[in-house]
Queue: 3 jobs
Job 1
Amino acid sequence: MIDFYYLSGSPFTWRVWLALEHKALKYKRIELSLEKGDLKSDSYLALNPRGKVPVLVDGDFSIYESGVILEYLEEKYPDFGAHLFPKDIQSRTLSRRLINEIDCYLWPTGMRLLMATFFTPKEKWDEAKISNALAGVLAEFKRFDDYFSHNIGNDALTSVEFSMFPIVALMFRIEERKKDLGFSQAVNPELTRWFTALSGLSVFQLTRPQHWS
Ligand SMILES: N[C@@H](CCC(=O)N[C@@H](CS)C(=O)NCC(=O)O)C(=O)O
């Protein structure tokens, strides 16, 4: 049995949940709470000394870092459910590059925008800081124009979609809270088309953070 340590709303845990579902694996989802300090408890730090989610425990093997977890699931369970990476070596390598770009470049810009909005009380919002963070997010998303234009977003789900979707969802969620953010007007319409198409699929609906509804 696989134990999957999860935090609602975390894009890195969301991608692993999507992958577990996509591969139709049996797993137990263990929900952690930041407020209760679950991530910094001794027992959790023994699984991940960085005190971050996600962690996957598969029998006697425990692993953290979501991108590596996706690779592990694909290699350990090649014949379960659907594949998480394309078979062809060039497509697979390009997928890994995209995931690296998401983690190293896109996510840090998204995190800055989250910090300036979601994690700052409304009365302390600094509009200059927010628009600066938004500019960073938009510049990064622009680099993925080609991806959004060529990904039809329904029958070729891979780890790239599972890594990108939670971040895009978070950006739209910020805009729900700050209606004049201007994210949806500024991004490539192909991104919105892609997001709408994926949002309609059952795997994304099933895994949507419960506290978001
Ligand atoms: N590179 C890590 C990032 C994990 C990460 O940053 N997780 C965040 C949630 S999105 C976390 O656990 N934050 C809690 C903390 O830092 O205390 C991965 O891909 O798993």
Job 2
Amino acid sequence: MEIIKAEFITSAVEPDQYPVDHLPYLALVGKSNVGKSSMINNICNRSKLAKTSGQPGKTRLVNFYKINDAFYLVDLPGYGFARVSRKEKEKWAYMIETFLSSSPNLLGIIQLVDIRHNPTEDDITMMDWIKHFDMPLIILATKSDKLGKTRVKPQASRIRKKLGISEEIPLIPYSSQTGLGREAVLKSLGSLLTNSLDFQG
Ligand SMILES: Nc1nc2c(ncn2[C@@H]2O[C@H](COP(=O)(O)OP(=O)(O)OP(=O)(O)O)[C@@H](O)[C@H]2O)c(=O)[nH]1
Ligand SMILES: [Mg+2]
């Protein structure tokens, strides 16, 4: 798949604020600062489409980006960010859970984990939810540029084991900074969309 058109459509908290054109959603999940918004920019070849920051907690709403007039990439707030108030945390959890549980258009999940670390408890909780609903899934092991080349593969295998996922699920070492894994991600996104839409008829 190639991305030839990418546009920000809207930010939402409640489902009645989501776009109404019934195109499928692919949602990005992962802890704060893992690189969800950067991935959207890299994959779309647009450095400023989604707002990113060195500080965790940048994305605070559910953001919809329409791609190729065919589907949405949905950028969610990150989970597991300790330094926000309990109230704010509850609001983010509400937005994430509401989005995941009340989007009939949700076709698949892109889960981002930091390749340098073991998955967090929140990553595993999220993974359990995805498995429970049997959601099509692509995992990106981000910030691969921060590891020495020889450590990328072993660390990706280790993450696969820790998450307890089968070999059929793509786990792609990725870097928004160098573009490593970009082509593989586009290919996987294309397959996910084709397979799921065929399946739904
Ligand atoms: N080296 C490196 N840095 C990255 C990569 N991806 C993201 N970053 C950096 O990590 C920081 C966080 O990136 P974001 O894309 O804002 O992360 P996010 O997951 O959207 O964070 P929240 O919106 O807070 O949930 C920024 O400083 C990015 O430049 C990557 O692949 N490699
Ligand atoms: Mg973000």
Job 3
Amino acid sequence: MEFYENKQEPEKAVLVAVDTGEYDCSSSLDELEELAHTAGAEVCGFVTQKRDKPDNAAFLGSGRLEELAEFCESNEIDVVIVDSELSPVQQRNMEKAVDTKVIDRTTLILDIFAARAVSNEGKLQVELAQLKYSLPRLTGQGTKLSRLGGGIGTRGPGETKLESDKRHIRRRIKNLEDELAQLEKRRNLARARREKDRVETVAIVGYTNAGKSTLMNTLTQAGVLAQDKLFATLDPTSRALTLPDGRRIMLIDTVGFIRRLPHDFVEAFKSTLEEAASAKVILNVCDASDPEFKEHLEVSSKLLAELGCENTPIIPVYNKCDKPGVIPDEISEPGAVRISALTGEGIEEMLDAVSKALPPTRARVKMLIPYSQGAAAAVLRKDGTVHSEEYSENGLLLDITAGVELIDRYMDFCV
Ligand SMILES: Nc1nc2c(ncn2[C@@H]2O[C@H](COP(=O)(O)OP(=O)(O)OP(=O)(O)O)[C@@H](O)[C@H]2O)c(=O)[nH]1
Ligand SMILES: [Mg+2]
């Protein structure tokens, strides 16, 4: 006799979209299918409808909704996944009409993140995003059944219960925000320390599944999980790396981007995203073998701009160039590099580009050193490259190239 049912069977899903012409509906659905796979669902069908905009009440028009209900019924569908963000009303009405669990794109993405989160911070961030998303959607019905007539175990919370639930969630949100603020403080300290030690950070960002973690591993043997799945990486990883020119940098691998990223997600992950965004150089990686790589690069660029990195050098990195079907001619952006994180092809050129994009470590300056500061003059002569020196009335006039650190130390003498 089996007492415990092993619930490993994938949930059967049907994907639903309204094609308003605002974006490429079919490629967005392809992506949603991949997301659904990643979340462990089996996609059994698609239902789309061309409309100017989704129906306010139930997302789809009534005819299509009926078809969807029939499809769900005859195929024993467990979940309907909608390729947009649903309003609470739309979600409720649709669920009622099709008598099946309905979730939207945001819920799906947040669900994947919840399964991926490993670090304490990652878990807190995901929970925060989920709670913020669900708060306005709490409406007094606990489960789908509670909406479909009563019975034992099908009643949702009453209004009083609902209010206390909401209060509870608000309190939890506040706690999560406090905890995250603490962690952010610690992160800022670490960043300040790196800045003091003059370790420059280089961030690897880009669309999900572009090969960021693979690149990180190739460069640093970091052993980061790289998978042919969306959002394999959630927690940022950083590793030291020595560039061919001898400079030490800190490389950060981050969570991937996706188009129409949930707003609550961006909010919750702000501090990790900002850390990547505050890097000295950003590698914007894309999968050049993906027919939509241009759009992917654009999604990332837009997000980076929102995070405030207009002035940071961003190097477009076309990855997976080892794959057949990658057309080099299509990739001709100035300053871009072509690589294969898998085979190592092009990596050296990429690192050279990073070196060039990093702020200089040496600079040429003129200094006037009072004759009383003989020791300073000696240090500068020893560690810098002196182009000329002249004994003036007020002191020694040096034209010197030196490390920025050394120059900082004697900033007072710069003229
Ligand atoms: N052929 C080929 N495959 C690659 C290359 N780089 C990465 N891949 C594959 O692409 C898939 C995704 O790689 P990841 O490194 O996990 O991608 P990611 O950008 O870190 O993805 P997320 O963390 O999910 O955002 C894996 O199956 C890799 O083996 C490459 O240069 N060539
Ligand atoms: Mg990754």
